[in-house]
Design brief:
- With about 300 residues, this protein is α/β, with parallel strands linked by helices.
- The chain is built from 12 helices and 8 strands.
- It has an 8-stranded mixed β-sheet, sandwiched between helices.
- Keywords: Hydrolase, Signal.
């Protein structure tokens, strides 16, 4: 999932209150913050067991938070695990600047410098795929042991208008809905991300976490994620193992297959009976494929 008038004062106050309030951490995980190069505070969860094997860093999609990865992080025994709230999401700083994959690339770099455990495996979902692509374009792969991209093609930027006019039109229509009805849009986005039945309390919790992103910032993020930069050239820079996990129902399935075909040695796994949030709909399949990918990396 991917989203500039000033925030009304009340929203600025609420955003500040959210940042200052105590942050909940699931059992077995520690909350921490790292300062990005512009001073933004990036919230992340840390857990697992420090080891010689590469740590795994999870990056969520548009407006989602680190919490969405908790169950998957718990499956990874014997290695350190991290999950971040991208800027303007969750408990990270809400800022009117750098709400783009290119801006968030510096936040990823700040986190990897803080971790300082050697090359890591970056797992990105949806907007997180755009963020990782922007990171590789700017910083290269020196800090990366492997990449896992979950159910997202790369943005073609302004070329999308000519290449996929119908899809671009649908995106702009959705942006208009977000601007007018942000609460309803967020709820609909969460529902559309899942194919399997969702517990009502779980649904409400995830929606509440997504609504920590102010609507105008979310709207700006959608535009910069999908319509501003052609990120497909970064595929030529990827010299690390890449696993692509795609929903069989994804409208971007062909594009994800093309990504795997363009990166030497990359592998794609198509997950049946799953929506966009395939790691929530089919957690056992996701966990198994991720474990296999990590085992292969360890063997190298």
């Amino acid at each position: 999932m991917r989203s500039t008038a000033r925030l009304p004062c009340i929203l600025l106050l609420l955003a500040a209150a959210c940042t200052a309030a105590p942050v909940f951490a699931a059992e077995g995980f520690r909350n921490a913050f790292v300062a990005s190069d512009d001073g933004a505070r990036i919230h992340y969860l840390e857990g697992g067991t420090p080891a010689r094997r590469p740590a795994v860093v999870f990056i969520p999609g548009w407006t989602w938070t680190a919490d969405v990865w908790i169950d998957q992080m718990r499956q990874l025994d014997g290695r350190a695990v991290f999950a971040m709230d991208p800027r303007s999401q969750g408990d990270s700083s809400k800022t009117h600047e750098r709400n783009s994959p290119e801006g968030r690339a510096a936040d990823i770099e700040a986190l990897l410098r803080r971790i300082d455990r050697g090359p890591v495996v970056l797992v990105g979902w949806s907007q997180g795929v755009q963020d990782i692509a922007a990171y590789v374009a700017r910083y290269g792969t020196a800090r990366i042991a492997g990449l896992v991209w979950v159910d997202s093609a790369l943005s073609a930027g302004p070329k999308s208008i000519a290449q996929d006019p119908a899809g671009t039109a649908r995106l702009l229509e959705r942006i208009a809905i977000l601007a007018e009805y942000p609460r309803e849009y967020i709820g609909g986005m969460h529902d559309a991300s899942r194919m399997q039945a969702v517990d009502g309390a779980e649904r409400s919790r995830y929606i509440a976490l997504s609504r920590k992103t102010p609507a105008d910032l979310g709207l700006a993020m959608l535009v910069t994620d999908l319509l501003t930069v052609d990120r497909t050239p970064v595929l030529a820079k990827i010299d690390r193992p890449l696993l692509v996990l795609a929903s069989a129902a994804s409208p971007e399935l062909d594009a994800q297959r093309a990504i795997a075909a363009r990166v030497p040695g990359a592998r794609i796994v198509v997950v049946e009976n799953a929506g966009h949030a395939l790691f929530l709909d089919q957690p056992a399949v996701f966990s198994s494929e991720l474990a296999k990918f990590l085992s292969d990396l360890d063997a190298r």
